[in-house]
């Protein structure tokens, strides 16, 4: 955003497509972000270009920018820089070639900042919603050390592996949740529409109904009378639960601890958290970021309040001269294998390589755990659905089975 000198008001900038002739008379074209056509003309005139045409580009609103978009952008930028494509040209290629207009706008905003002399690290820091401190710190370290291409490649690998890990955990958790949601909806439909139809038929039987049938019919009457409160209450409870989870720090800590203690899923979540923790620290350490400074980003990247608290404790101990191995043992949240590998890495001077191996190991463990979890959950869910839906059907058909004796 540009600012007017006198009034101090922000000028809304837009992208302008221009065409003109350079000093040699050759026709040149391009795009420029500016506050108006007059600014475009002045800027290009200073560059020795005689402008013949300027047109404001219409901005199409796009989809929300996701972590996957940022991961793909990082990979594309790293690939082009390794191929020797200049930085500004790389941004042009990525921005113009992306299917999501929101990403294209973000990339062109970054390009405009870099074109004015801003460092890549500082340009990324202007968009904290998409580029976290870990991302910016690694880019800054790469710029200072002159190994930006290598650091962007490491960042792309890190983001791809993190996204893959999150997707596996979500798929493992979403499968049973979605099945239970469908079971609730099917049960509600049976209670509200199917059971009342049976109830009308049973009135003509002139005999006492079995206890299971009476129970289901009473439940159906409750559903029919209060269906709006039941559905409204369920959806409101889910909505406010997730809102509280997002906004309340105490709620986040409680849920993070609870998730780690779940009977089956807790072990998978713990392994995934350790994989992210070690992968993040390995990436930071390999980039040459000091250990104490690296731990600033590691705790948040782990995605769990228990490990965030443990990381802060580890950071405090390391800053006073304690070895990383001892500090991790004192935190009491890492398995013995992890601390032993870290000890070997510290002794051999290859801490980043050892942390990377730990991350690889736990990522494979998560893959196997999710695969076995899916195969175990399918029959269990089938049994639950069979008992629930089958029980309702049997309860409603019991009077029909006894119809012969009544007649």
TrEMBL record:
Kindly list the places in or outside the cell where this protein is found, as annotated in its UniProt entry: Cell inner membrane
Q: List GO terms (cellular component aspect).
A: plasma membrane
Say where the protein is mainly found.
Answer: membrane
Report the record's Gene Ontology biological process terms: protein secretion by the type II secretion system
Q: How does it sit in the membrane?
A: Multi-pass membrane protein
Kindly state which keywords UniProt assigns to this record, in alphabetical order.
Cell inner membrane, Cell membrane, Membrane, Transmembrane, Transmembrane helix
Ranges of residues in domain Type II secretion system protein GspF: 73-196, 277-399
Q: Which InterPro entries match?
A: GspF/PilC, T2SS_GspF_dom, T2SS_GspF_sf
Where is the chain membrane-spanning?
A: 173-195, 215-242, 380-400
Q: Name one Pfam family in it.
A: T2SSF
Q: Which PANTHER family match?
A: GENERAL SECRETION PATHWAY PROTEIN, PROTEIN TRANSPORT PROTEIN HOFC HOMOLOG
Spell out the family assignment given in the record's similarity comment: Belongs to the GSP F family.
Output this protein's name. Answer: Type II secretion system F family protein
Q: What organism is recorded for this protein?
A: Duganella vulcania
């Amino acid at each position: 955003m540009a600012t007017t000198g006198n009034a101090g008001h922000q000028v809304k900038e837009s992208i302008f497509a221009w065409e003109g002739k350079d000093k040699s008379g050759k026709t040149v074209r391009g795009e420029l972000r500016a506050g108006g056509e007059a600014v475009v003309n002045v800027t290009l005139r200073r560059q020795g270009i005689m402008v013949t045409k300027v047109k404001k580009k219409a901005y199409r609103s796009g989809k929300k920018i996701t972590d996957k978009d940022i991961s793909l952008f990082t990979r594309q930028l790293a690939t082009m820089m390794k191929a020797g494509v200049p930085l500004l040209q790389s941004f042009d290629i990525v921005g113009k070639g992306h299917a999501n207009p929101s990403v294209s706008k973000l990339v062109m905003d970054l390009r405009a900042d870099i074109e004015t002399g801003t460092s890549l690290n500082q340009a990324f820091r202007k968009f904290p919603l998409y580029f976290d401190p870990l991302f910016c710190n690694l880019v800054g370290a790469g710029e200072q050390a002159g190994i930006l291409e290598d650091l962007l490649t490491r960042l792309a690998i890190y983001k791809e592996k993190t996204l893959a890990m999150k997707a596996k955990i979500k798929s493992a958790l979403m499968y049973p949740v979605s099945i239970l949601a469908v079971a609730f909806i099917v049960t509600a439909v049976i209670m509200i529409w199917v059971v009342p139809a049976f109830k009308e038929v049973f009135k003509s039987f002139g005999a006492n109904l079995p206890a299971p049938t009476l129970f289901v019919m009473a439940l159906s009457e409750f559903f029919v009378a209060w269906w709006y409160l039941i559905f409204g209450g369920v959806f409101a409870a889910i909505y406010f639960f997730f809102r509280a989870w997002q906004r309340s720090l105490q709620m986040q800590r409680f849920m993070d601890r609870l998730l780690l203690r779940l009977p089956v899923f807790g072990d998978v979540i713990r392994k995934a958290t350790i994989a992210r923790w070690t992968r993040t620290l390995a990436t930071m350490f390999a980039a040459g970021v000091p250990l104490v400074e690296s731990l600033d980003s590691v705790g948040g990247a782990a995605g769990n309040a228990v490990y965030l608290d443990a990381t802060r404790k580890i950071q405090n101990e390391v800053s006073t001269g304690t070895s990383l191995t001892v500090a991790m043992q004192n935190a009491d949240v890492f398995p013995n294998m992890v601390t032993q590998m870290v000890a070997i890495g510290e002794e051999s001077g290859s801490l980043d390589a050892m942390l990377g191996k730990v991350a690889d190991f736990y990522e494979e463990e998560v893959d196997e755990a999710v695969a076995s979890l899916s195969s175990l959950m399918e029959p269990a869910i089938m049994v639950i659905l069979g008992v629930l839906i089958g029980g309702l059907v049997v309860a409603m058909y019991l009077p029909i089975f006894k119809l012969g004796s009544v007649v």
